[in-house]
Amino acid sequence: MKMHKSISLCMSCPMNRRRFLAGCAACATTGSLLTLPETVAGQDDAKMRIRIVYSLHGPQQTGPDWPNVGFDFRPVMDRINRQLTRRCRELELVSSLATGPEQAKEILEKDKTENIDGYVVYQMNCWNQVVQTIAASGKPVLYVDFQYAGSGGFLVYTAGFLRSQTPNVGFAASSRMRDVVEAVRCFSILKKGGSVSDFVTATAQVRKSTTPAAGDLSCRPDDLQTLSTKECLERLKAAKILAVRNQESGPAEPIMGIPMEYVSFAEVNEAWKAADKDQSREIAQRWQKNATAVLDVSPDTLETSAAMYLGMKNVLKKHQANAITINCLGGFYGGHIHAYPCLGFHELNNEALIGACECDIRSTATMVMITAMTKGRPGYISDPVIDTSKRQIIYAHCVASNKVFGPQGPTNPFTIMTHSEDRQGASVRSVLPLGYMTTTGKIDQGRKQIIFHQGKSIANDPDDRACRTKLAVEPVGDIEKLFTMWDQWGWHRVTCYGDLKEPIFALADAIGWKVVEEA
Questions:
Q1: pLDDT recorded at residue 455
Q2: Topology of the domain covering 3-210
Q3: Domain map of the chain by residue range?
Q4: Which residue, 276, 249, 250, is CA-closest to 264?
Q5: What confidence score (pLDDT) does residue 6 get?
Q6: Fold of 229-517
Q7: How many Cβ atoms are within 10 Å of 336's Cβ, its own excluded?
Q8: Contacts of 300 (CB under 8 A, 6+ apart)
Q9: CA–CA separation, 456 and 33 (whole Å)
Q10: pTM to 2 decimals?
Q11: Can you point out the beta strands (E) in 363-489?
């Protein structure tokens, strides 16, 4: 039999990606109504009744965010429902959608008369806050990541549950459906007299038992040369970061000893407009010639991207700076800038300058530190995803260098594509070298800490969901520990090719900071 319920969905509020979307839940109750058929595996009083709650903006994505604009979640949810129903026959499964806490509360209120024994919460978009309300019910909860879609929120919220020792939440972070199935089947432990704690322990055992053992972590030779700690600190003092966050400009406090200044959108946009048209055309033609392919990006878009690169370079020169980070999404969606800076950042990073996404100042400072320390190697800022089925952490973003060993090093192939989440502008899928040791981290001046982990580069994932470049790394150390820090450090990390453990620890010692090893 089929049952139906109506759920209020946020279909009208603007969705501008990542943290811009955190406010969607607040206006969700003003949206239109969706009638969702619940998947039911037969009414049977002897079975435990489990509700699957999909946490997302709506059944089809209308705005830019992970996984991408226009993404249709309906066949994905149907497939999950069918597979869980077929393979968890000992459970009765029903499903609902929720955009935020209000819908989650409505579901819980209804379930007081529905004899629901537990919940599976699928994080389908990044920042919808549904799982927190469901977890507060005290019922057993299995929290699942729909990877390259909900991964940012999943990592941050999971770390929060682990930090607070939330006793009723287990989690699954696997791209392999059978791993999720085995975790869902752990609800049966409760039917056999087990406790909620036993359920959570069982989900952890499933996750760990389905994670492959560590592979061969020996790496290809890498002739990495680093500066002494003293020289590195001198380079940091001589560097300068320009932060473009809004229309304000003026002085800013240094970060990690690196001078910083705020620059307005207007100044960058004027530099873009003033860029030499012939030079912009030449750069665009060079990009097109050097790229493996140019997909869905027009020559005009390449030229406007090249003009943005030239504009940013002129702004850097004017302010005697070597690093720039721009609130690219807010600037572009707000009409303050008229070209994505992605390709310009790519080019700057190839030149041992620093172009960093989303006005993330901590990540930008980390990139400045890495480039100084390694005599020119670029940092790669990313939104990580963890896949236990492959024992991987995947670093995803729409900007990446293709000269990971520095300006004089070899190049790797790259494809020019649209910016993934909104399918506009131009960005880069860089096919990064495999078999090398990488170092990943981020600084936090308030804590006086550097977070740190390492891994061997083992794959480039071409999945069309989420950001274009996806470097997959097998982490050195404990992949389970990698789930624990995201609520404290945020989602971004910065990756560099090379073993930087000794110079990073030495730098931290010299300035009185601490290194936090997250794996």
A1: 98
A2: Rossmann fold (3.40.50)
A3: 3-210, 229-517
A4: 249
A5: 29
A6: L-fucose Isomerase; Chain A, domain 3 (3.20.14)
A7: 18
A8: none
A9: 47
A10: 0.91
A11: 380-387, 392-397, 414-419, 424-430, 437-444, 449-460, 469-475
Instruction: Report how far residue 310's alpha carbon sits from residue 329's, in angstroms, rounded to the nearest whole number.
Output: 19
Q: Tokens 């909900």 appear where?
A: 150
Q: Cβ(346)–Cβ(328) under 8 Å?
A: no
Helix (H) or strand (E) run with residue 298 in it: none
Map tokens 């406090």 to a residue: 253
The token pair at 261 is 């200044």
Which 8-state DSSP code applies to residue 72? Answer: B
Residues 6+ apart with CB under 8 A from 385: 145, 147, 148, 151, 155, 393, 394, 396, 466, 470
Asked if residues 183 and 142 have their Cβ atoms less than 8 Å apart, the reply is yes
Q: What share of the chain is helix, strand, coil (3-state, %, to 5)?
A: 35, 25, 40
Query: What is the Cα–Cα distance from 19 to 503, expressed in whole angstroms?
Result: 33
Residue pLDDT, tens place only, 267-325 = 999 999 999 999 999 999 999 999 999 999 999 999 999 999 999 999 999 999 999 99
CA distance 457 to 472: 6
pLDDT number for residue 45 = 58
Q: Look-up: residue for tokens 């071409």? A: 462
pLDDT along the chain (519 residues), means of 10: 33 36 35 38 71 98 97 98 97 98 98 96 98 98 98 98 98 98 98 97 98 97 97 98 97 97 98 98 98 98 98 98 96 95 98 98 98 98 98 97 98 97 96 98 98 98 97 98 98 98 98 98
3-210 matches 229-517 in fold: no
